[in-house]
Specification:
about 280 residues; mainly alpha
């Protein structure tokens, strides 16, 4: 009997006449995605490619892999079983606000906090250029883009590279809580799961000094997602005038903790020194 190492047991090499990689996974089959993943997982950070540019490259790859007809069919079925989602689509609310519209809000309000953040840095409210949504997925993505910056504030994720993990992991838990079909929930979470890999793997490989901050941000995002109402279906615009704690209460946001991760985010991006005391990891 051949002595097979424990970790190699059960592995069955597959023979194929193909001269190129063939897999049962459409993701593995895609050479552009393989190249993108290798790059975003293994690279160090640098000014020649900021993290937002990575997602600009990723989104067309993801679109090419999607089965749009199946996604629309899953939305149709989900709406028959999920009254809250159906009502959200039927209302079809889309915002038309600009940064200047938020100048009227008190500084401590949800809208005022956003105005301070947006005018302090070179930010834009509409991450993806506007286009009239023609499908349910396009509408979902449009509203996700319009509410993302507010989710940073509501979930306690600072506007920095470590803070980005908080709204990512809020979505990765909250969407699965309120979308009944796991396959549809997964399709709606692709941007978040691929996007979050950049921060987790690169932190471990190149910036382990802020790994506790990274884990803390993930845990905080998960806690908000698990404890809160379906924030991704809420009409946030009705609450811009409220102080942050009141806005959270009105929207059913629970478990949010505001943590300053600016220094850790700057260190991760190689734009600042190592923070004096990275956050301690919380117990699971």
């Amino acid at each position: 009997m051949v002595d097979v190492p424990y970790l190699a047991r059960g592995w069955m090499p597959v023979e194929t006449p193909s001269s190129v990689l063939v897999s049962s996974s459409k993701y593995l089959n895609n050479p552009a995605l393989r190249e993108w993943l290798a790059m975003i997982l293994l690279r160090r950070n640098g000014p020649d490619m900021p993290p937002q540019a990575e997602m600009h490259e990723f989104l067309p790859i993801l679109e090419s892999l999607r089965d749009h007809d199946r996604i629309e069919a899953m939305f149709d079925q989900e709406r028959r079983e999920n009254p809250a989602l159906d009502a959200w689509f039927k209302e079809g609310f889309v915002s038309t606000y600009t940064i200047e519209d938020f100048s009227k809000y008190a500084p401590e309000s949800l809208g005022g906090i956003l105005y301070t953040q947006m005018t302090r840095g070179a930010y834009e409210l509409q991450i993806v250029p506007w286009s009239e949504p023609k499908t349910q997925l396009q509408f979902y993505n449009l509203r996700s883009g319009q509410t993302h910056d507010f989710e940073h504030i509501l979930t306690g994720g600072g506007f920095n590279f470590m803070g980005e993990l908080v709204p990512y992991w809020y979505r990765l838990t909250n969407v699965f809580k309120f979308i009944r079909n796991p396959e549809l929930a997964a399709e709606l979470s692709m941007i978040q799961i691929f996007g979050s890999l950049r921060y987790t793997v690169r932190t471990m490989l190149h910036y382990p000094h802020v790994w506790p901050t990274c884990v803390n941000a993930i845990q905080r995002g998960m806690r908000v997602g698990q404890q809160s109402d379906a924030l991704f279906l809420a009409r946030l615009e009705d609450h811009f005038h409220l102080p942050l704690n009141e806005a959270r209460a009105a929207l059913g946001v629970r478990g949010a903790v505001d943590v300053d991760t600016d220094e850790a985010g700057a260190f991760w991006a190689e734009r600042g020194p190592l923070p004096a005391s990275p956050l301690a990891m919380e117990p699971a």
